[in-house]
Structure formats: C-alpha cells, structure tokens
Amino acid sequence: MGWLLCYQVTLLLSYILSFCTCQDKIVPGQNITGNHTLESCLGNFSLGFFNPENSTKYFLGIRFNTYPKTALVWIANRESPLDSPGLFMLNSDGNLVVLDDTRNLIVWSTNASISASAMNHTTGLLEDSGNLVLSFGEVTLWQSFDHPSDTWLPDMKLSLNKKTGQRRRLTSWAALDDPQPGKFTLGIDPQVPLQAFIWKETLPYSRSTVYVGKDTRTEYPDVGGSALLLSYDFDADEVYIVVTVSDRSVKFRTWMSAAGQLQQLLWQDSTKTWLELGNPVHNCYFYAHCGPNSVCRNDESLSSSPCKCLTGFKAKFPNQLAVGDWSGGCVREKVFTCSNDIQGNFSKLENVKLPDYTVLLNNKSMSECKSECQQNCSCTAYAYVNGTDESTGKCLAWFGDLLDIVENLHVDAHDVYIRVYGSESGKNDHSANSLKRTLVIAIVSAAVGLLTITFGYFLWKNKLGRIARRVSENISKVRAGGGKNDTELPLFSLRSILAATNNFSEGNKLGEGGFGPVYKGILAENKEVAVKRLSKKSGQGHHEFMNELELIAKLQHTNLARLLGYCTEEDELILIYEYLPNRSLDKFLFDHFEKTKLDWATRFQIIKGIAQGVLYIHKYSRLKIIHRDLKASNVLLDGTMNPKVSDFGMARIFDINQIEASTNKVVGT
C-alpha cells in the first residue's frame, strides 16, 4: 500500500504544482516575442504576437486559446502594426510596452502613472476572464478591459463618466484582416445615458433598447443550459453596462464586425464553431429606418415595407413610399395643439423597442406618470416599465418626434402610450351625458383658447418685432462702427439653411451647448459650414446672439473661429461658422481612444494656438475682450489640428486702457 500512497501524493503534488507554474505573468526581466505566449491559468486565453488571416502585419493580441485565430478579443498596437513579431515586456518605467526591436522603437505602452518606488516592481497578468492587468502589489495600475477593441467579453464594462465624458467603448476593425480602428463604435449614448448606440463615424447607425436599471436574464437551453445576465446600472458619476455568464466554462463574446453589426457568439465544443445567438440583421436594426413617428416591424416574412405610421399619423411624403423611401417618416394627420380635447387621450402600442430621446421621471407611480404627461402638452408619449401602479417602476416620457420604434423584438420590449386625439384612441366609453358635458367644455375652452391665442399672437408679434428691430439696429452698428475695414456679414435665408442642414435633421447634429444645437450644413458649391441655432429652451438669447455678431465680425485671427453669416428670419436666431472637422478639444482630451492622437507636438501646437488667440483678443485686436467662457469644448480644431477659440456669447468688452472690472452675475467657466 506504501507505493499507492506515494503515487497518490505524487499526483497531488503535480496537480498543485500545475497551478503554481502558470505562464500567465510577465515580470521585470522577462519578455514575449516570436511564437512565445502568455497563457491564462485555466487555459482560456493566450497573449502573443499574431498576424490576422490574409495579413502580413503583426499585432500583440489576446485570443481564445486553442480556438480559431479569428477569435482575437483585444489588440494592443492597433494603430502601429509591425512588419515582424516585436517584443512585449515591462519597460524601465514599469509600464507594459510593445517594442519594434528592429528600430528599437516603442509602438505601444500602457502609459500608466507609476511612482519611482514601484517602477521595478510591477507585474503583468493575463486573467482567465481575458483581462490583461498591470499591477503593483494589490493595486491595479491599468487593465485592458478599460480599453476595449472590437470584442465585449463577460465582466467587461461599457461605461460613460457623466462628469468627465470619459467612455469605454468598442471600436470595429477597419476590415476583416485589418485590426486598425474602423468606422464603427459602440458605447453608451451621452445624450440619453439609458441606452447604447453604434455610431458610424459621428452618425447614429444602430440603437439598443432603453434600459431602466433592471437586470435582464436570457436563457439558452440549447447550449448547455447557460444563461446571460445583462446588468445596467447608473449613479451620480458613471453609467455602465456589463454582461456576465452564469457558467464560467462557457466561451461567450459580443463582437462588432467591420460592417458595424453586433453579434453575440457562443462557442460549441461539439462542432468547434461559434454559434450566433439572437436574430439575423433586419432592416429594423438600422437607426430610425422608417423615419420619425413610425414603427419598423422586425418580421422577415413581410413581403412589403416593414414600416407603418403610428395611429393618428400619415406619411410625410407619400410619393416617396412608392420607391420604398421612408426617410421622411410620418406627421400628424391633424395639427397638434394644446387644447383640452387631446390632453387625456393616449393610444397604447404594445411590446416595442422604446423610442429614442427619452426622459426619465423618477419616483412616479403609473397614474402619476400618465398625469405628468397629460399636463404637459409638449409630451408626446410616456411609458411605465418594470412596475405596476403602486410599485416603484420607472416613468419615461418623450417630447417631440418619436424615433426608432421597433416591433417584434422578442426581448426587452415594453408598452408605450402615444398622445392622440379622442377619435384616434379607438375608445368610446362616454355616456350621452358625458359627451354633452365634454361638448360644452370643449366649446367654452375653444372660445377661451381662441382669445388666448389671439392675444398671445399679438404679444408674440410685438416681441418678435422688437427683437427684429434690435437685431437690425445692432447689425447696422456692427457693419458701420468699424469704418471701411469691417467685414460685411452675409444674411442667409432660412430656406437656404433648412436645405443645407436637411431641415435641422438629427443626422446632421454635431452637438449642443448653452446657446443651442449646432448642425453640419452644406451650402451651394459644396461649402461645409457649422450652423448654430438658438434653442427655444436656451437660457441665452438676443444679448448673446448680438455679442457674437458684434465681436466676431470685428475679430480676424487664425486662432479664432470665423463667422460666415447669420439668419434672423421669422423667430430664428442663427449663426453660420466655418466647419471644423476635428470638432472640439474636449472630444480628444476626455476620450481614451481619441486622446492617443494627441502626441506632445500636437498638444504643444494646440496650447500655443489657444495662447495666441487669447493674446490677440486681450491685447492686439481693435477691441479689448475677455472671453469668460474659455474651456475645452469651446476650442475647435480644424483638419490640421489647428485650434480656434469659439463661442463669444459670454464675452465682455473692456476699454483699451481698462485693467479691471466688476460683474453683476456669475457666468461662463
């Protein structure tokens, strides 16, 4: 029996030692090169230099171990491919780096801030989750899960920091055999942090359902009874989505293809293939495929168009439907007003993907949710999800057009209640007396409403006239005040601006500030411009509009945004600027992916340009100007990353010899 006991002890020791000799770490003095790899302790993932199929370039990447080479889940040197396998090691500053040893050049680094005492004591670890971690003792200095490629693994967060704007998001490959960053990104929507978006460059391409803080569990009985748990959570600072898998032995990944299609893939050992879960891509996958105020029916059996108008709506451009073009969407059959005959009527649309641009109204019961929408005539729809009338469900409301509603989702579907006229709601449960009372109330309300509208119209016309006169007078001063050298600002017609921006379409929207939204426009001769439109909800107005006109018309400098014209037609206040393709500086500073494009030379160029622009308005321009709202979002970048200071709505003009002044209120930054 002694030999048996000895044999068992030997087996036990070898089993224990197998866990103690995992090749999952890299420490100072070690490196990975050629065909050598790191392997996570349970053998799920490996890290090494790979070249994609049909490519001669090499990348340091992580992939599912023993599975097809195409299942790469993370790439380090995406923007700096190598002609031959490089060197992966811990640098003297303690960071993980990829070295092109033929040129002795670092092409990628974790760029973590590491103290001098920790520099020679950091460790790189490939975890069994597929996460590459750089740590010092128990402190995590950097991890690959914070810098995703095109694959979303279980326990990896897609997130948005609402304070800094910093995001964790997926970025597609440029092509099937090219891991360099492509055109598509997946992340949480900064405007509505209750949903995720796929963007094609800067335009919305596809949208998730609206999440309201409830975990979603999806069972897959055909694949070993495994379950996926989608958790969505948000607090004061960070919003995130994370997927977890109930069975850790299951190989699962969410992958965004180079064509922008999101696929959930589960590995099947029996067939050695990736099984695609969910439905194939349909027309309704694409954002707002049927235009505003319509429903897209996710049904492959349909022989006709998947689009239909909502109850009470009709096609905006019926002639376009003959060629299958629903981009114009639908408009109300009757002009929407705030009269009492429509305030209480809603049409229920069942089991759909909730529309875009939702507003979350917390701490409401179902009846309070409906009442909240009823009492606001700008509210076009509401929904109450994850609760009953007396529970703590979530109240959602919509204002304006309803975009991207989809039927037949099978999962994550909810009911939405859309405001309609009484005759459109499909209900007629009033008695004769009730109808009489309603008729009397309607007549009285109509009379009062007519008087109110008439009175309001004259007030509005009077106010509009005053604004128009002030604008005209001030513009005349702007043109005449500076003498011969002043620039004549072109006056654009509202029609030309509507045509340039496709009627201020959401697809042309570049962003939004305190003044209002900014749209990309294309004028005659394909001239690209940025159109800044005063929002009706803006706290700014005539004063800021005139401030920009008066100041920027008199300022000419390479580091100041150039004003090309304006529009004051009807009740619109619009400024037209030169279009700067690289957007604002904050988009680069607060984005993990974008900020890698800011090398020191570019940063120094931007710093000098901002300083030159500020020095000009402080000292060398005809006016002595203090900007008062100088921040990263008000510094725009042209195609060569040359900075241009913009947004002079809050600026103050000083006398030439004045060195100080007092302000009556706190404004700007």
Q: Could you please describe the fold and organization of this structure?
A:
The chain folds into four domains: 22-147, Agglutinin, subunit A; 156-278; 284-424, no CATH class; 487-654, Transferase(Phosphotransferase), domain 1, CATH 1.10.510. An eight-stranded mixed beta sheet has the order 27-26-34-30-35-32-33-31, with helices on one face. It is globular and about 70 Å long. The protein has 669 residues and is an alpha+beta fold. The protein is built from nine helices and 44 strands. Mean pLDDT is 79; it is low at 3-20, 426-469 and 476-487. Strand 37 (517-523) and strand 38 (527-533) form a beta hairpin. Helix 5 packs parallel to helix 7. Helices cover 19% and strands 32% of the residues.
Break the fold down into its secondary structure elements and pairings.
Elements: H1 2-20, E1 25-26, E2 31-33, E3 37-39, E4 45-50, E5 59-64, E6 72-75, E7 87-90, E8 96-100, E9 105-109, E10 123-126, E11 132-136, E12 139-143, E13 151-152, E14 157-161, E15 167-168, E16 170-175, E17 178-188, E18 196-200, E19 203-207, E20 216-220, E21 226-234, E22 238-245, E23 252-256, E24 262-268, E25 273-277, E26 294-297, E27 307-309, E28 313-315, H2 318-321, E29 330-332, H3 340-343, E30 346-353, E31 358-361, H4 366-374, E32 379-385, E33 394-399, E34 405-407, E35 414-419, H5 432-481, H6 494-500, E36 509-512, E37 517-523, E38 527-533, H7 542-552, E39 563-567, E40 574-578, H8 586-589, H9 600-620, E41 624-626, E42 635-637, E43 643-645, E44 652-654
Parallel strand pairs: 26-34
Antiparallel strand pairs: 1-10, 2-7, 3-4, 4-5, 5-6, 7-8, 8-9, 10-11, 11-12, 13-23, 14-15, 14-22, 16-17, 17-18, 18-19, 20-21, 21-22, 23-24, 24-25, 26-27, 28-29, 30-34, 30-35, 31-33, 32-33, 32-35, 36-37, 37-38, 38-40, 39-40, 41-44, 42-43
